Amino acid sequence: MKFKISQIAEILEGEILGDENVEVDKLSKIEEGEEGSLTFLSNPKYTSFIYSTKATATIVNKEFEPEKEISTTLIKVEDSYKAFSKLLEFYNEVKNNKSGIEEPSFISDSAKIGENLYLGSFSYIGNNVKIGDNVKIYPSVYIGDNVKIKNNTTIFSGAKIYSETELGNNCVVNSGAIIGADGFGFAPNEKGEFSKVPQIGNVIIEDNVDIGAATTIDRATLGSTIIRKGVKLDNQIQVAHNVEIGSHTVIAAQTGIAGSTKIGEHCMIGGQVGIVGHLTIGNNVRIQAQAGIARNLKDNDVVQGTPAFGYSDFSKSYVYFKRLPDLVSQINDLQNELKALKK
After folding, report:
1. What are phi and psi of 258, to 5 degrees?
2. What is the tens place of the pLDDT at every residue in 127-164?
């Protein structure tokens, strides 16, 4: 889709320096700009590229003045980085502005569908499902029985939403995510064999939650696994049964959270973190990447390591750990000197 620079300047409330009638149909980095693309300049260390870029147009800060001839048309704004981000949001809306029901797809007669639904082909909507307005469900999505999905939520291709799950307003579920599969519940018997414990709870996702590709959130054994409002989950995260994640917490990829752990609000959890079950993690906690959490954490704790301990203590200890061979050698030398003195 092509846009005139004059249209883009109007969206961004910017001033044009150059040809306002040129058109662009893609976005690019300034150093990789090509004809027909739009880019931006925010970081001063990339300024040199504005004189060589082949991008048709470039968004710049208002105070920018070229020191030599340029070929790109400029759009001057208050903050070029924020303006480009705004443009990305607009571009995403236009790109994903789909509507209608594609065939083949299946909608149960008992399902209740809101206005302006997009349903991609080969998708399935089960019995008694309730879907709000402006929901987008891309191809090959499974929506199980009794699922509730509120307004303006998007579910991308290949996601699976098991029965009884509740999804709030303005949520995003990326491809391959599985929400509501059985929790890992097995009980040993007298023979040492494991029998499955029925998982009869559900998953509740509150408003404005983003769920990454191939992330899995298990249904509760009893009650609910709960993801509170504003939570952002990266790709390939495992959230086990009866976990609760507090509002506006962000978790990076490949983290695993075992059953019944409660995580507070506004936490930041790095990639490949492992958290054992039945713990309580406070609010505003920071967990560094690859940490192993085996104990409760208080509000505002910052931890690292496996098992994790205080971040500053870990950093100090790591200095000595790197020098461990030298320290051992020094201790051996001292021991030899002591033995010689004793003789």
Report:
1. -80, 170
2. 999 999 999 999 999 999 999 999 999 999 999 999 99
Q: What is the pLDDT of residue 205?
A: 98
C-alpha to C-alpha distance for 311 and 303, rounded to whole angstroms? 5
User: Sign of torsion, CA 44 48 50 51?
Assistant: positive
Catalytic residue IDs: 241
Q: Is the peptide bond before 104 cis (omega within 30 degrees of 0)?
A: yes
Burial class (CB in 10 A: 0-12, 13-18, 19+), 3: middle
Can you give the pLDDT at residue 134? 95
HSE-up (13 A, CA, CB side) for residue 155: 31
List the chain residues with pLDDT less than 70.
none
Helix (H), strand (E) at residue 54: none
- pLDDT for 93 equals 76
HSE (side-chain half, CA atoms, 13 Å) at 159? 28
Model confidence over 162-216: pLDDT tens digits? 999 999 999 999 999 999 999 998 988 888 899 899 999 999 999 999 999 999 9
Of the candidates 245, 246, 242, the residue with the CA atom closest to the CA atom of residue 223: 242
What element of type H or E holds 90?
Answer: helix 80-95
* Residue whose entry in the numeric block shows the structure tokens 């509170």: 228
Cis peptide before 307 (omega within 30 of 0): yes
Please check whether residue 52 is in contact with residue 32, taking contact to mean a CB–CB distance below 8 angstroms.
no
How far does CA 302 lie from the centroid of its chain?
21
Task: Determine which helix (DSSP H) or strand (DSSP E) holds 315, and give its type and residue range.
Answer: helix 311-322
Are the beta carbons of 233 and 216 closer than 8 angstroms? no
